[in-house]
Amino acid sequence: MVKTNNLTMKASARCGLPMVALCCLVVSAAWGHGVHGEHAKVLAFEGPLSYFRVGAVHMLTGYDHLLFLFGVMFFLTSFTAVVAGITAFTIGHSITLIGATLLGLKANYYLIDAVIAISVIYKGFENLDGFRRWFGINAPNMLGMVFAFGLIHGFGLATRLQEFGLPRDGLVPRLLAFNAGIEIGQITALVAMTTVLTLFRTSQAFVPFTVIANTALLIVGTGLFLHQVHGYQHNAYPDEFGFGTASHTLDHLKNDIPGGGSERPLDVAPEGAK
């Protein structure tokens, strides 16, 4: 027993430090997750092929989406289960990404991103068997929850897209191309995730890795949630922070662009600006 515990502790130490470093890296990088000013120009003026490229890049740099998918994939070992989980997420986000954009439905993007952060927290909590351990109940149906969160993730994408003066002519093929790019980026990320998880499942480090990785999801998700709530408070009540509404909102929009705001989105009118 002592030998087994020592092996577990050593395995935990080996995977713990890299996971903590990854956790910090993802949180710091995720603050800038948005649509880059260059991509905003593509969305405003270019065609389906460019939309496809932007969709793929957006998914591969969408830390909140990738963290949620990592949580979904964590305990899926069979090909059928993987396909079912990813299909549920894909159908969900495709419905709201395309439907909400075409109908002009959107919400405050800080609040939507806060709910997406909650989806990351949820998967970490579920993977740590939190429902049974804390509430004495079974977790909700996995596919149903993945589909529901997929709807929210897609609505977040639709809200972001509508911040950037999309052309009305030929919008449907552009949206389909963007969605296809999202799927290609998603598949690329899933291949990498599956490889990493498969390697860990065959090692003694998998049990400590499970605890560390899903605890990291809880920590990162909470950090993302607090960041988005902070952004919403500044956006909705800027005068309470000693700034004018227009200038303060523009400052946050610039912070959503990687590189510190050297470029700003096209056609974005700050909420409350006169």
Can you tell me about this structure?
It is a single chain. With 274 residues, the protein is mainly α. Helix content is 75%, strand content 0%. α4 crosses α9 and α10 runs antiparallel to α11. The termini are far apart. The N terminus and C terminus are likely disordered.
What's the topology here?
Elements: H1 2-30, H2 37-45, H3 48-60, H4 63-73, H5 79-103, H6 109-127, H7 130-135, H8 142-161, H9 171-201, H10 206-236, H11 245-255
Helix pairs in contact: 1-10, 3-9, 4-6, 4-9, 4-10, 5-8, 5-9, 6-8, 6-10, 10-11
Task: Summarize the structure in short.
This protein is mainly alpha-helical. It is built from eleven helices and no strands. It has helices at residues 2-30, 37-45, 48-60, 63-73, 79-103, 109-127, 130-135, 142-161, 171-201, 206-236, 245-255.
H/E element order: HHHHHHHHHHH
What is the number of helical segments per DSSP (H or I, 4+ residues)?
A: 11
Which structural class do the helices and strands define? mainly alpha
The biggest sheet, with number of strands, parallel, antiparallel or mixed sense and barrel status, is: none
Q: Give the helix proportion (percent range).
A: over 70%
Shape: globular
Proportion of residues in β-strands: under 5%
Rg is 20 Å
| Ends apart, CA distance between termini | 69 Å
Instruction: Give the number of DSSP strands.
Output: 0
Mean pLDDT: 79
Low-pLDDT residue spans = 1-33, 256-274
List keywords for this structure.
mainly alpha, globular, disordered C terminus
